[in-house]
Design brief:
single chain, TIM Barrel, three-stranded antiparallel beta sheet, 15 helices
Length: 372
């Protein structure tokens, strides 16, 4: 029996909406998780994050084990208390970060050994240590198995090796995790864009048994079309009665297309990263507030979104802040972008409940005028 009940309220084609019920609160799905990599959603307070409508945020094992140290976070009361986020929290096991440090990393069947980009110190991250950090030291609500995430492009032999190692690491992590009532463990499907590998990965995950299932190894450079073609079969390989999480995705168009294929959960740094670089997400696509056409534009970013960042500041003012290098511009744009993403999720949930998701999807695509 899964740690957290997952109640699916409605389906519209492959798209579905429901609630994942955790000890710290309900997560409405489809859900977008703002990324708080190092215990902070960049440029925002947790109160601002909550005001956007987020039910859950994401933290990261590798960044927190390096600084300030997972044991220190535990001493200070766990990640929820440390960061002042009271709701559900998922922690990424660190597989993607290990990949990004590939020049400093050595992978064996036993563990990943890597050098810290902070001070050069050497660290060993095993499947068991990843579980210990997430579940026991940080106090995550949703814990991710340690996987080996590989860069794009990859040949089938390399993808197969990483997939099988990930499956073995997942089984070891499951044994270390044990049976817990107030925490959940998700397994991660791997296999790059190779359908036979995704099928093998899924079967091995199901044989091990998890509270939820993630789709990993996408959004690493393969592009939107290849991602969608992979999701066409990859999602249905995972149990339909448990939440399905597409890791590291993404742009709004990626999210809409993934929801149409049955994905329930998402995370990405894009909303806050874009905000820090002067970009705002809108229903027409992203806009760059640095451009001169906004210098005298008195309209808000989106008057229909119930967020001060979206409705209370003019584009002219935001243009001024961005051009002046004022920190406030980064704060407001990051805040708005997260609010926009949450509004997107809310509109999709409502469309699925009303049985009009296909219409919403067509309207979303028709409204895009900016590059995506």
């Amino acid at each position: 029996m899964a740690a957290f009940p997952f109640d699916i309220a409605a389906r519209d084609g492959a798209a579905r909406t429901g609630v994942l019920r955790t000890a710290r609160g309900d997560i409405r799905t489809p859900a977008f998780m703002p990324v708080g990599t190092a215990g902070t959603v960049k440029a925002l307070t947790m109160e601002q994050v909550a005001q956007t409508g987020a039910d859950i945020i994401l933290g990261n094992t590798v960044h927190l084990m390096l600084r300030p140290g997972a044991e220190r976070v535990r001493t200070l009361g766990g990640l929820h208390r440390f960061s002042r986020w009271p709701g559900p929290m998922l922690t990424d096991s660190g597989g993607f970060q290990v990949m990004s440090l590939s020049k400093l990393t050595r992978i064996t069947d036993d563990a990943a050994t890597f050098a810290s980009p902070v001070d050069g110190s050497r660290h060993v991250l095993s499947p068991e240590r990843s579980i210990e950090i997430q579940a026991d030291l940080l106090g995550s609500d949703i814990v991710m198995q340690l996987d080996e995430c590989i860069a794009w492009p990859a040949d089938e032999a390399r993808a197969a090796d990483a997939m099988r190692r990930s499956a073995e690491w997942g089984a070891r992590g499951k044994r270390a995790f044990g049976a817990r009532e107030d925490q959940a463990l998700f397994g991660i499907q791997q296999g790059s864009t190779f359908e036979p590998l995704r099928r093998e990965s899924s079967q091995r995950l199901i044989d091990t048994g998890y509270d939820g299932y993630a789709i990993g190894g996408l959004a690493v450079g393969e592009g939107h079309q290849a991602m969608c073609e992979t999701l066409d079969y990859a999602v249905d390989l995972l149990p339909a009665d448990r939440p399905r999480y597409l890791m590291g995705v993404g742009k709004p168009i990626d999210i809409v297309e993934a929801v149409s294929r049955g994905v329930d959960m998402f995370d990405c740094v894009l909303p806050t990263r874009a905000g820090r670089h002067g970009q705002a997400w809108t229903w027409a696509g992203p806009i760059n507030l640095k451009t001169a056409r906004f210098a005298e534009d008195e309209t808000p970013l989106d008057a229909d979104i119930d967020c001060p960042a979206s409705r209370d500041y003019s584009k002219a003012y935001l243009h001024h802040l961005v051009k002046s290098g004022e920190i406030l511009g980064q704060v407001i744009l990051s805040w708005h972008n997260l609010a926009f993403y949450q509004r997107l999720m809310g509109r999709m949930r409502a469309a699925i409940l009303a049985g009009r998701f296909d219409a919403f999807r067509r309207e979303f695509h028709a409204g895009l005028t900016s590059p995506v």
